[in-house]
Design a protein that fits this description.
This protein is α+β, with helices and mostly antiparallel strands and about 450 residues long. It contains 11 helices and 15 strands.
């Protein structure tokens, strides 16, 4: 069964592609006359390719509404139709004189003898036609298969794979591997309801047994004919007004290569339409896949960084005889435009330039500073500060206090916070009195 397909091309674009495949088009509908959709459903009006024959189809004479059920062989040949047109079947007519056209039709065939507009349920029963139902000349398809054959054009069709006993259905998109349009064998008809002056053109898609590529998906697929082939010309030939074994032999599984892959489940709802419906779920182009969303975001980030112009690094002076080209490059953070100090001694890496000190420097011109050491009393000489240090330092009172001599902390003894040194003083006094009389141990007294 084929219940959904994709055709998002305008009739004008569709005509160009068909003609490029060797299928001439002499007439086609306006671009606004059909619905361009990636999710074509039954009831939609879509372009159908057929031979330019009267509404009664190909053959020796048109059918009559009042005698539609009668055998058409009982009507004398050579009669004109209601519009005064001569029959289209002419032994002298050649294939070169056949004209083809694209016509907007409604999906879901309504037979010409129908008097009232059928409901949607009845319409769904005629969206497909089994190939084995056309073998015998009986049933509702008899007139259509003899005189009203057409080609349904699309970009691909959908089938649902049943999983877990039918509890889950995964949609798959099927298309030709070479990317060409698909041409389904179909039937068409024209009906005019009672009390209406308008004609309604409808069509159906013929299905056959599935091929080896699609057996896992469904047991039946549409009959696919090769674009611009002799098969299509035979199928649409208006000179063939009777069903034959040759026409029946055209209805067979497709032997070409197909591409099948799962797509978004949103295609299952009628009315949804999106180019993403024909994009594989696992494809990097599918934006609806959450994994692809983060992958695309990361890829876009990397592309942005790659496209961003890299600032040329300032030349770095070589240190210790090393070549500046081998020095590590400094990456510039985006949005940061402040000037930075050159890296001279490794103490200020990319620090903002300090504001210069406008106060008069008191230490300017000073060669030496003298400080006193409380331990040995020697005077130490301090090296002159670098110009950079003098530029950022401000005079303090430490220098003057250093010249004034030793402080209280250097001459004053410190006291323990946990002991008053009583035990130490007692030990010293015992050592002094060790030899004095009366200070000996009592054991020594009894030894005497």
């Amino acid at each position: 069964m084929c219940g959904r397909y994709a055709l998002a091309l305008r009739p004008s674009d569709l005509r160009r592609q068909l003609e490029a495949s060797g299928m001439p088009v002499s007439e086609w509908p306006d671009d606004d006359g059909t619905r361009q959709s990636y999710n074509v459903a039954p009831g939609y009006y879509e372009p159908v390719y057929r031979a330019d024959v009267p509404d009664t189809g190909a053959g020796s004479r048109p059918h009559d509404r009042d005698h539609a059920a009668q055998n058409e062989d009982d009507v004398p040949a050579g009669s004109s139709n209601e519009q005064g047109e001569t029959p289209s079947s002419n032994p002298s007519q050649t294939a070169k004189e056949v004209r083809y056209k694209l016509q907007a039709m409604k999906w879901g065939l309504v037979p010409f003898w129908t008097k009232r507009n059928p409901d949607y349920g009845s319409l769904m029963k005629t969206i497909n036609c089994r190939d084995d139902s056309l073998i015998e000349n009986r049933g509702m398809w008899t007139t259509m298969k003899q005189k009203k054959r057409c080609i349904v054009v699309c970009q691909g069709f959908y089938e649902w794979l049943k999983k877990h006993g039918g509890k889950e259905k995964v949609p798959h998109f099927v298309k030709r591997k070479d990317g060409q349009l698909m041409c389904f064998a179909g039937l068409w008809d024209c009906v005019q309801y009672e009390g209406s002056n308008e004609k309604l053109y409808t069509y159906t898609i013929i299905t056959t047994d599935s091929n080896d590529q699609l057996k896992f998906l469904h047991d039946r697929i549409p009959v696919i004919l090769e674009n611009g082939s002799e098969q299509i010309r035979t199928w649409l030939d208006p000179n063939r007004s009777t069903w034959s074994a040759e026409l029946q032999s055209l209805l067979k599984p497709y032997k070409g290569e197909l591409e099948i892959y799962p797509v978004s489940k949103e295609v299952g709802k009628v009315g949804n339409n999106s180019p993403a419906f024909i994009v594989p779920v696992a494809s990097s182009e599918n934006k609806q896949n959450i994994a692809n969303f983060f992958a695309n975001a990361k890829g876009a980030d990397q592309k942005t960084k790659a496209k961003a112009p890299k600032p040329e690094p300032e030349p770095v002076e070589a240190e210790n005889g090393q070549d500046s080209e081998n020095a590590p490059k400094i990456e510039h953070q985006a949005g940061e435009d402040r000037k930075t100090i050159k890296e001279e001694d490794g103490t200020e890496n990319n620090a903002p330039v300090p504001v210069p000190n406008t106060q008069k420097e008191e230490t300017k011109g000073q060669k030496r500073k003298h400080t006193s050491d409380s331990e040995d009393g020697h005077v130490k000489e301090e090296a002159e500060p670098s110009p950079k240090a003098r530029r950022v330092q401000t005079p303090t009172t430490k220098e003057s206090s250093a010249k004034s001599g030793p402080t209280a902390s250097t001459t004053r003894k410190t006291r323990s916070a946990t002991s008053n040194e009583t035990a130490q003083r007692a030990k010293k006094s015992t050592a002094k009195k060790g030899n004095e009389k009366g200070s000996q141990k009592i054991t020594s007294f009894f030894d005497k």
